[in-house]
Amino acid sequence: MELQEKLISSFMVMENLGKVDLDSSIHDIRTKAMASFEKEGFPTKKDEEWKYTSLKSVLNHDYSVFPKEESDIEFKDVKKYFLHEIESYKVVFVDGIYSSYLSETTHDGFDICLMSSVLKKPQYQLVLDNYFNKIAQNNNSLTDLNTAFTIEGAYIHIGKNKILPKPIQIVNFYTGGEKDILLQPRNLIIVGENSHVEIIERHQSLSNNTVLTNAVTEVFAGKRAIVDYYKIQNDRENASLIDSTFVQQKESSIASVNTFSFGGKLTRNNVEFFHEGERIESHINGISILDKKQHVDNHTLMHHKSPNCESFELYKGIYDDASTGVFNGKVIVNREAQKTNAFQQNNNILIGDKATINSKPQLEIFADDVKCSHGCTIGQLDESALFYMQSRGIPTKEAKALLLYAFGNEVVEKIKIPELKTRITKLIANKLNVKLGFDM
Amino acid sequence: MSKYTEDDLREELATQEYEYGFYTDIESDTFPKGLNEDIVRAISKKKNEPEWMTEWRLEAFRIWEGMKEPDWANVNYPKPDFQNIAYYSAPKSVDPNKTLDDVDPDLIAMYKKLGISTDEQKKMNNVAMDIVVDSVSVATTFKATLAEKGILFMPISEAIQQHPDLVKKYMGTVVPKTDNFYAALNSAVFTDGSFCYIPKGVKCPMELSTYFRINEGGTGQFERTLLIADEGSYVSYLEGCTAPSRDENQLHAAVVELIAMDDAEIKYSTVQNWYPGDKNGKGGVFNFVTKRGICHDSSKISWTQVETGSAVTWKYPSCILKGDNSVGEFYSIAVTNNYQQADTGTKMIHLGKNSKSTIISKGISAGKSQNSYRGLVQIGSRAENARNFSQCDSLLMGNKCGAHTFPYIESKNKSAKIEHEATTSKIGEDQLFYCNQRGIETEKAIALIVNGFSKDVLNKLPMEFAVEAQKLLEISLEGSVG
Q1: CA A35, chain centre distance (Å)
Q2: Which of A35, A359, B326, B474 is close enough to B321 for a disulfide, judged by CB 3.0 to 4.6 Å?
Q3: Which of A348, A367, A372 is the closest to B423 by Cβ?
Q4: H or E stretch including A159?
């Protein structure tokens, strides 16, 4: 059975078996989203937004759609996937089901808890009405699919004037208990005025079975709020991820989304920013280091709707073997958004003989008093720099790795959590298959 | 003296009338409107074409019938009704034996009005002109000088008669009939255009030039240019276009094919100043052009264009860098005003080793216009050491216009180096202040800045055209260019 048909019938099963509350207000949203998905289907390469990424090989599996019972995993087995050097709040899901044993949630002063309880408990009705699926509607059929199957995910609601003492980790494990599984976590993050939050997100498969994750996250940053979002993507070879993050910012807020893609079979990142107020600052950063037949597609949209805002976008890519990288950065500046300063940069290094990079930095500008620029480069390592190091006794492999590390360092430097910075540096060294000769 | 501000400039831009909007009353021999196989056959017959050419057209027509109009470009316009266009229109006074002196005085007057009097060109500028008025070449000059060198420069309809081998061999090889909707349409109904062949090792002693002009109301212009530079030759080709004011939108769907054999160099310059429509966006020319060149080993094709006219422009002069060490260049200024829309750019397809390409694109948008750059740089897996540099800058005047960039960059080779940069800005208040401070009036300062902004491209135009291009920039953005 085609996956699309299976999803449609699964949706009906979900409704009939009473897995979800049919009277709740989000039932309407679900039904609409499902109808929209039914109409649009999965995107193909004919869609301009999916020109360089084919989902064929990923969709060609008989995925099971609903998570079964919770599987047991020991903390010691998965400790390495957490940023365990520091204290943190944790929201952990195993095969799509909340694991209370591995998690550390709170309701003390602010909510760090579960999407499922928000969907069920009436006191959250107002939150759902005001925030749920408000910015994720973008005519993207995969986002609609996620909306239709919203069951579980992280729910983070920080009120006014709170600086979180420690970062929040959202980790999704997949144990491989079932052969092929489709996971659709849905996160909702609301940060109030003047509050400050750091979030680290990771999807991790623990077996070599096929998994496809279609995740959607909505982030609302209030006035003067500071939100930093880090995404670590270092999954196994059979794990694919379609991750959509939507960020809405109010006046004078600062938000960043940082994506580190090192693993997985196919990864598609949609990062979309919408400005609702003046003097907003937005950052989108990313590094992709790929080899074998990996494919990473970074798709970003920076939509400037109000005056005096700034955005900075920096994506770096290193592509070995037959890996493929895609970058599509779109900046839209509305007529009202005067004095906008939008900056976008995409640098790529091709190392592999069969590696491919497709880059499409795109500007759509309707205001005149703006400074917008984008730059894109594709190149190789500097031969003379390599020779310089080799002539001083550094072996080729290490010399190359050092240069590549330096290339990506601009993005690593932007990480505000020191322990995370160290962790990412280690992951990069690991991926480049060298020990970089300095302390990390 | 009152202060000249950007608002004044905007005001001037809005009221700027199309200077060349006059209509020459020449009796035309026009076909009935509509398009079907009979019309295609009739065009072919009118041109007295051989059988293979008629078949070629019919095949293109059948392909066209099965195609859909593209709508991916960032432009909005009422789709032309292809059955409401007359596909053939020739001035009746044409006589193939006529020399330049016998040309219809009305026509001569028309060119004079445009400031391109043929006699003057002939005497002063050392430019050979093949003038195309509504699809039929009226006069061809300097033929003798060119013939001495073995250079063939003639209307394509003559070339089909006189040099069928060359036409048969090369036509449709760079832009196939199946390439796109407008190329297919052009292949079926093209009425005239230029044909040029430069023999091996010949350096063309003068700039070759053609003027196109759409004259008859309700007719489409479908010209076809085929330019072949054989091994080691060089040619610089100029193309200029103007059309009189008309209320209905006129369609222009041309095809230009360039072939640069080993070690050859082609420089192709265009100044396009067709009627852009009035300030309410009424009328104007639809310009849907397919231009492409193929570069063999160590050859070079250089496109330079100044686009100031047309209501809708859809044009991507491209280079297929097939040969090793081949070079492609694209220099463009696109100015849009009022309700003009331009979606223009280039494609650089790198297939050969050490192929190089440079793209410099400058867009200036004013009024309520939309100006887009759309470009593709593609590096094939065998294009070792391919190199590309692209720069596209946009200048916005007023907050009702838009500037867009859609660059596609695709690399399949690890030794390729590609750089792309784009900026969008307006004339900075600080820049103006700097000039004012040094005693330069605002008007002069704006002129200075716009001039400096376009300089990179203007410098690439041959002398004969640089002056005219400057003039056209003035017309489009009067007050801003000194």
Answers
A1: 25
A2: B326
A3: A372
A4: none
CA distances from B449 to A327, B366, B395 (A): 34, 15, 10
- Residue A28 has φ and ψ, to the nearest 5°, of -60, -45
Provide the token pair at A176. 């491989």
- What's the pTM? 0.81
Distance CA B314, CA B70 (A): 11
Contact (Cβ atoms closer than 8 angstroms) between residue A258 and residue A243: no
CB atoms closer than 10 angstroms to residue B382: 13
Task: Tell me whether residue B195 is exposed, middle or buried, using C-beta atoms within 10 angstroms of its C-beta: 0 to 12, 13 to 18, 19 or more.
Answer: buried
Q: Which of A356, A367, A374 sits opposite B412 (nearest CB)?
A: A356
Q: Which residues contact A419 (CB under 8 A, 6 or more apart)?
A: A83, A85, A86
How close is the nearest chain A Cα to the Cα of B291, in Å?
Answer: 23
Q: Residues B273-320: pLDDT tens digits?
A: 777 777 777 777 888 888 999 999 999 999 988 888 778 888 899 999
**In the numeric block, which tokens belong to residue B140?**
């061809």
Q: Which residue of B has its CA nearest to A319?
A: B414
List pLDDT tens digits, range B336-386.
888 888 888 999 999 999 999 999 999 888 888 888 899 899 999 889 899
Running DSSP on this structure, what letter comes out for residue B332? E
Show me where the domains of chain A are located: 1-276, 398-440
**Phi then psi dihedrals of residue B319, to 5 deg:** -130, 130
The answer to whether the beta carbons of residues B335 and B307 sit under 8 Å apart is yes
Q: In angstroms, how far is the first alpha carbon of chain A from the final one?
A: 50
Chain A: give the shortest CA distance to residue B13, in Å. 16
In terms of Cα–Cα distance, which of A257, A297, A261 is closest to A274? A257
* Pairing between β-strand A281-290 and β-strand A341-350 as defined by DSSP bridges: unpaired
Q: What ipTM, to 2 d.p.?
A: 0.79
Q: What angle do helix axes A418-431 and A396-412 make, rounded to 10 degrees?
A: 150
Indicate the residue type of A127. Answer: V
d(CA A429, CA A437): 10
The beta-carbon neighbor of B404 closest among A359, A365, A379 is A365
Q: What does DSSP say about strands A254-261 and A226-233: parallel, antiparallel, or unpaired?
A: parallel
Q: Do the beta carbons of residue A333 and residue A365 sit within 8 Å? A: yes
Token pair recorded at residue A240: 């694919």
CA proximity to B335, closest of B303, B360, B310, B357: B310
Both tokens assigned to A1:
């059975």
Contact A216, A247 (CB under 8 A): no
The answer to whether B176 faces chain A, any CB pair under 8 Å, is no
Distance of alpha carbon A346 from alpha carbon A342, whole angstroms? 14
d(CA B409, CA B273): 30
* Dihedral angle computed from the Cα positions of residues B348, B353, B354 and B355, in that order, rounded to the nearest 10 degrees: -20
Q: Select from A321, A363, A369 the residue whose CB has the most chain B CBs within 10 Å, as the one to mutate to test that interface.
A: A363
Residue B124: DSSP 8-state: I
